[in-house]
Design a protein that fits this description.
The chain is of the alpha/beta class. It has twelve helices and 14 strands. The longest helix is centred in the C-terminal third of the chain and has 14 residues. Bound molecules: NADP nicotinamide-adenine-dinucleotide phosphate.
């Protein structure tokens, strides 16, 4: 198959693209930079230099492809509209990547929420993430235009990617920050809890969705969860940084910005992957981000 992947130079997109190539597919991958384009070639990806804002380009690539996988930006509505237009009435697959901060909260690190979402529960969407959820719903609704659409909603992803960018967002940031400041900093008490998923298991979910998912579905991606105080403890042990520092939310916002302090590291985001396990027989194998930090993590 000819598959168009946005974010092909990124952590998720690069890992998905290399797995597709391994399975014999041809991948055209969107990137903004000539440097990344050269790197993509060495991974077997045919680079397309362009921007998510370039709707004509995205429509053209989508209409030429047998399948589209959008991993570049969960919040870019215009890009998703263009991809859907390019696939309109084609019956071809569109897999869109969202993120579980849609069901985040404003815990500021201070408690572990009882709220756990799955595909079978009513979702309580954080109002600050409603626009992201609206994009998910638009993708699912594209099934009515004969686009074979699906949304994958990953939780915190860990492990090494297999494409150009090998590093995820959350754990590598905490490690780099800890090595720089000499203490493992977390928000508040660090009792806030995120579900998590290893990148290899996540890639297998993309492959299963690409082969088997019915149109209009969404899938949470997780296989375990951890409170940030436990993640911090693992970083502390792995990198021999004894001090764990509890930043109050205001300080964390000043240092890291509001999005990172309040969502990425301060919120709860607890989900269960019920549908993918039941419907697609998806069997993730990695279960512990702490174990990966302790046994597999090398600094960037
Ligand atoms: N990593 C996680 O733990 C996680 C979990 C849940 C959801 N997500 C979501 O999944 C998406 C991808 O995450 P990631 O970890 O793979 O991030 P990433 O490594 O930064 O990859 C995203 C890639 O998208 C491309 N991109 C970004 N903006 C673009 C634009 N305007 N036009 C064209 N290309 C653009 C960039 O490629 P170039 O620089 O080569 O152009 C970048 O390499 C994000 O929306 C993120 O919020 C991530």
């Amino acid at each position: 198959m000819n598959i168009f992947v946005t974010g092909a130079g990124g952590y998720i997109g690069g890992s998905v693209a290399t797995a597709l190539i391994k399975k014999g597919h041809k991948v055209r991958g969107l990137t903004r930079s000539a440097v990344s384009a050269e790197q993509l070639k060495s991974y077997g990806v045919d680079p397309v230099i362009g921007e998510l804002d370039d709707s004509p380009l995205l429509m053209r690539e989508a209409s030429m492809a047998d399948m589209v996988i959008n991993t570049a930006n969960a919040d870019h509505r215009g890009a998703v509209e263009a991809l859907i237009s390019g696939l309109n009435q084609s019956g071809k697959r569109l897999i869109h990547t969202s993120g579980t901060s849609i069901v985040g909260d404003d815990a500021r690190g201070d408690f572990c929420s009882d709220a756990i979402s799955s595909e079978e529960t009513a979702l309580v969407i954080d109002p600050r993430k409603q626009a992201r959820r609206d994009i998910d719903l638009m993708v699912m609704d594209a099934a009515k235009k004969n686009v074979h659409s699906a949304v994958i909603i990953p939780s915190l992803i860990y492990g090494y990617g297999t494409g150009v960018n090998k590093h995820s967002i959350q754990v590598p940031f905490l490690v780099k920050n800890a090595l720089e400041v000499g203490s493992v900093q977390i928000v508040g008490k660090g009792l806030n809890t995120w579900s998590n998923i290893h990148i290899d298991d996540l890639v297998n979910l993309y492959l299963s969705v690409a082969e088997q998912a019915p149109p209009g579905a969404f899938y949470f991606a997780e296989n375990g969860e951890a409170a940030f105080c436990d993640v911090a403890e693992a970083i502390s042990r792995r990198f021999s940084i004894p001090n764990i520092e509890h930043l109050n939310a205001e300080d964390a916002v000043k240092r890291w910005g509001a999005a990172r302090a309040l969502f990425t590291f301060g919120s709860n985001s607890r989900v269960r992957s019920v549908r993918a396990k039941k419907e697609l027989d998806w069997r993730p194998v990695h279960v512990s981000v702490q174990n990966w930090i302790l046994t597999g993590y090398l600094p960037q």
